[in-house]
Design a protein that fits this description.
The chain is 15% helix and 29% strand. It is of the alpha+beta class and 781 residues long.
């Protein structure tokens, strides 16, 4: 260890060891109450009295057996060494690299000259502010270059005590001008994927949309936000994360950064530090090791330090504090923690401004040890990516077609606004092919179209300029809702059986592009509540955060007579595990078990805006306990009743849509079923049995023709004391009794066994009550 006294500043070249204990060098009153000048004078006297200091190496290797997951409760980085140590493959690689670093360190070579690293930025956006501008991306690249060339805007504020250990990585980042096929590019790709842009912690979601070879480019993904799915409650925002080279699968290798943090001085530079194998300065443990000799030992993150842009000494409490250990006391009080380091957390990410020389050496060793890292900065690769000095300008930018609808769910006759999102090169002409719309083609850049029939429709965009053309087709991206309004005084019922709204094709399913097979669909036979069918959310082995929405036909809520209106339904749902982490067989890895989300909403303007009625926790919808196999409700006791009160403005409306929005929490959750939806008034209803017509009664028998058992369903606006359900043949002969007795208000469901009926032929199901009779013909095979 070399120690230099310069005026009142300590300038230290650190090469020290000994994990410290807490003792004191100066009187207790000097620890926090005295001025920095007085504290330094105290230490100066002690140093002058004892000039010998011990030498060694900071910290030591972290034991993989002692590593536990860490929760981040403040804005910061999602990359943690302790999490990486859960992978035995990474542990082995980590040990091999550290052994190599010892050899590399002995070489002691110092670089002279800048290495160039080509960059591709993938903007995964939601069509709004997360579709960041080229200017913001260029600002991010500028900040990265300042960080990696010891040229941060505030480099002049770096304390002298750290000035001599500050290193210069000498890496310059340049946006690629040639893509992997040799075509001209501006190095920026823009992908519209709203569900993949949010909570972008899972590498399989957004990175699969756009990726270039990691051995040729540094991949940076910009997303709307990042959230660790295992965090809940007080978990803080994650600003970025990046996999260490030893743990990064090729197709996931690179940095992910939240758009709100990309232009700060430090966030992008911090994540690229992980890309080059740097560890947080506190080693992701209390007083842990970052495997770099010259960074002072830090107790933890410095996010709570109130002066991150200042030069004050922050007491390094990991070092000994005793009168006869001047070395550690100097480190503790005179040098302090290195909160100016890019690999720390602070509460202002425009403050960090340095890497140490040891960190630079670790980066250099990384480029040497990992061939896929080192190849990126070679002259040959720079030429291929078009970033070498003297490379000719690549101006013939062929457009890459991209688009979206700002309102992909609309009603028949409602405007649908299409948005051109072409990137790489501007388009001179546009040709839209709009399946099923009132205007089958359009040459507008951002057309506004209408559809006259409900359904799900495809859209194709071809963009052309002088450099070429590009075509993109998106299947099933426009959802047109049937806006024929149901108007019934006693309310509405959906049992997902034959002849009801689902069977009529009047519900709309809107799928996330993440995992199209995991969506709302009709259940298998026999999985309905006291009936044949229900609606199923196919959620077993789903993709985390996959989203599927089920939208009802419009209902006239004003027509319902009475007060105290409710939205009722039955739900059947099971979980696969009670553990916090579970093994995902498909992915062959442990994943956090995060609750699924079910939200019930309503819209009174045909889906232009939605109001949340109820967000259900997993506990509120859990009905069937634990099921390690794909869950299906095979008995009525596996269901539970849900009621949501509709009050105020939510009780009315002449054209109201309802939607169930389901979001998968993780890949190790289970299926969910919904059945027997009722929208009714529970008090003061004026509709009565006398008002019931065949339309309101909605008598249905299914399946029809009948081959085995059949179900009889109908709805009553109020209870009846005596009802009869029976089967008759063509001659009027009584064949079988189905039910006799009192019935309550609402939906009714009964089973006819095939064994009760005679030979095949035509029969009639008749329902009698209060002097009224309703009949439905059935065919028995």
């Amino acid at each position: 260890m070399a120690l230099v006294w310069n005026k009142v500043n300590f300038v230290l070249l650190l090469s020290v060891e000994n994990r410290p204990t807490n003792r004191k060098i100066c009187p207790v009153g000097f620890q926090k109450k005295e001025t920095t000048f007085e504290l330094k004078n105290c230490i100066k006297k002690a140093v002058m009295k004892k000039l010998l200091l011990a030498a060694g190496i900071i910290g030591g290797a972290i034991s993989s057996g002692a590593v536990f997951a860490q929760h981040v409760h403040h804005p910061g980085c999602g990359t943690h060494l302790d999490a990486a140590f859960q992978d035995q493959g990474f542990v082995t690689d980590f040990e091999k690299f550290n052994e190599y670093l010892k050899t590399y360190s002995e070489i002691g070579t110092e670089r002279s000259g800048v290495r160039i690293m080509p960059v591709v930025v993938h903007v995964i956006h939601n069509g709004g502010s997360s579709n960041v501008s080229d200017a913001n991306i260029n600002t991010m690249i500028t900040k990265m270059n300042q960080a990696y060339n010891r040229n941060a805007p505030n480099i002049g504020t770096l304390p002298e005590r750290f000035d001599t250990i500050a290193g210069n990585p000498q890496i310059e980042f340049r946006l690629a001008t040639k893509d992997p096929l040799g075509n001209c590019t501006n190095g920026i790709r823009r992908i519209y994927a709203p569900h993949k842009s949010k909570d972008a912690y899972d590498d399989k979601r957004h990175k699969s949309l756009s990726y270039w070879d990691r051995a040729k480019y540094l991949n940076i993904w910009i997303t709307n936000n990042i959230k660790d799915p295992s965090e809940s409650g007080g978990g803080g925002q994650i600003l970025g994360y990046c996999l260490f080279p030893g743990s990064a699968p090729a197709l996931q290798d690179g940095a992910t950064i939240a758009f709100s943090a990309m232009t700060t001085n430090a966030v992008a530079g911090h994540e690229i530090g992980h890309h080059l194998n740097l560890i947080h300065v506190w080693g992701d443990q209390t007083c842990g090791s970052d495997e770099v000799d010259d960074t002072p030992i830090a107790r933890d993150v410095n996010f709570a330090w109130p002066n991150p842009c200042d030069t004050l000494v922050k007491e390094a409490t990991c070092y000994e504090d005793v009168i006869d250990n001047y070395r550690d006391s100097l480190l503790r009080y005179g040098i302090g923690e290195n909160y100016q380091n890019y690999m720390d957390y602070v509460n202002n990410y425009n403050c960090p401004n340095m890497f140490t020389k040891g960190q630079v050496e670790r980066m250099n060793a990384t480029l040497s040890f990992y061939s896929f890292r080192g190849n990126v900065v070679t002259e040959a690769n720079n030429i291929l990516a078009g970033v070498n000095d003297g490379a000719p300008a690549c101006t013939e930018l062929k457009p890459v077609a991209e688009f979206w609808a700002t309102n992909p769910v609309a009603c028949v006759g409602q405007n649908v606004n299409l948005k051109n999102g072409t990137f790489n090169g501007a388009g001179d002409s546009f040709l839209w092919t709009l399946e099923g719309s009132d205007t089958p083609t359009s040459t507008a850049e951002n057309p506004v179209v209408k559809y006259s029939a409900p359904g799900t429709y495809n859209v194709t965009l071809t963009v052309t300029n002088s450099a070429g053309s590009s075509t993109k087709t998106k299947n099933g991206v426009i959802y047109i809702v049937d806006n024929t309004v149901e108007s019934k005084p006693w309310g509405y019922f959906e049992g997902f059986e034959w002849g009801q709204y689902w069977d009529q094709g009047r519900w709309t399913v809107v799928n996330d592009e993440t995992d199209p097979g995991k969506d709302w669909r009709l259940s298998d036979w026999g999985n309905g509540f006291n009936g044949t069918f229900a609606i199923k959310m196919n959620n077993f082995q789903n993709t985390r955060d996959n989203n599927s929405t089920l939208i009802s036909p419009p209902f006239d809520m004003d027509a319902i007579q009475g007060t105290s209106k409710q939205f009722r339904f039955k739900v059947a749902y099971a979980i696969r595990t009670n553990e916090d982490f579970a093994f995902d067989e498909a992915a062959q890895q442990f994943v956090p078990v995060v609750d699924d989300k079910l939200i019930l909403s309503r819209s009174a303007n045909c889906g232009q805006t939605w109001t949340t009625l109820k967000s259900f926790s997993a506990t509120e919808i859990l009905s069937a306990g634990l099921s390690t196999d794909p869950f299906a409700p095979t008995a009525d006791n596996l269901w539970r009743d849900i009621s949501v009160n509709l009050s105020g403005v939510n009780a009315g409306g002449a054209e109201v849509l309802y939607k169930f929005e389901f979001t998968s929490g993780s890949s190790v959750n289970n299926n969910l079923y919904i059945d027997n939806i009722q929208i009714i008034a529970t008090a003061g209803a004026n509709a009565s049995i006398e008002d019931v017509t065949a339309e309101y009664f909605n008598l249905s028998v299914y399946p029809n023709p009948v081959t085995e058992n059949a179900m009889v369903s109908f709805t009553l606006p109020e209870p009846v004391a005596d009802a009869q359900v029976a089967v008759y043949d063509l001659t009027g002969r009584h064949v079988a009794d189905v039910y006799n007795g009192a019935l309550g208000m609402g939906d009714q469901l009964f089973t006819i066994n095939r064994s009760q009926l005679g030979a095949g032929g035509v029969y009639f199901v008749k329902v009698n009550f209060n002097g009224k009779s309703f009949t439905e013909k059935i065919i028995v095979q």
